[in-house]
Amino acid sequence: MAADPANCRVCRGPDADPGLGRVQVWEDRYWRLTTSLGGEIAGFSYLEPKRHVPHITDLDGEEARTLGPVLAKVARALKEATDSQLVYIYVFGGGIPHLHLHLGPHKNGDALNPMMIRGEVVATKLPSGATSLVSKEFPQLPESRHSEVRERIRRALTESPTKE
Ligand SMILES: [Zn+2]
């Protein structure tokens, strides 16, 4: 458990990059972007705050204020540099507890998984034309569970102040 910045590899900055198979390509005062040295996807990159912010749910301060513009800037650069169609962005948090956004330049047919859910997926066209994707391997939750959680989210967003 490397929740302590003193034991955090990512907090070591560029010194730890070779051991993580990547190299820094950009930085500003609060963020740095590294790009993988190998793998299936050219330009696969990692955006991390320089300060030890364990998870996206801990994001605050200048990093919270600057993430949007920084993310837009680096994603555009990756798209242009790789001539990709899209840039996928993933935040997991179950591995190294120092916030890192994975940025995967994506083209049709490449190695990136375009699905967010596991198992065999059934696609259903909705009357609106949108597509609903549902895993066959997991039970669908009852509407009561969805509405309960939706209301909790609404309450959490309206009753707690924005973290500054
Ligand atoms: Zn750290």
Structure characterization notes:
With 164 residues, this protein is of the alpha+beta class. 24% of the residues lie in helices and 23% in strands. It has two helices and seven strands; from the N terminus they run βββαββββα. A hairpin with an 8-residue loop joins strand 2 and strand 3. The longest helix is centred in the middle third of the chain and has 22 residues. It is globular and about 50 Å long. The site of zinc ion has 6 residues, from loops.
Topology:
Blueprint: E1 22-27, E2 31-36, E3 45-49, H1 61-82, E4 86-90, E5 101-106, E6 121-125, E7 131-135, H2 143-159
Antiparallel strand pairs: 1-2, 2-3, 3-5, 4-5, 6-7
Bound molecules: zinc ion.
Task: Write a short abstract of this structure.
The chain is α+β, with helices and mostly antiparallel strands and about 160 residues long.
Question: What features would you highlight for this structure?
Answer:
single chain, 164 residues, alpha+beta, 7 strands, 24% helix, binds zinc ion
Sheet with most strands: 5 strands, antiparallel
| Overall pLDDT | 93
Beta-strand portion reads: 15-25%
Q: What is the H-and-E element order?
A: EEEHEEEEH
**Main sheet: which strands, in order across?**
1-2-3-5-4
Helical residue percent? 10-25%
Counting DSSP H or I runs of 4 or more residues, the number of helices is: 2
- Please tally the β strands and state the result: 7
Global outline: globular
Give the terminus-to-terminus CA distance.
26 Å
Bound molecules: zinc ion
Which structural class best describes the helix and strand composition?
Answer: alpha+beta
User: Compute the gyration radius: what is it?
Assistant: 19 Å
Low-confidence stretches: none
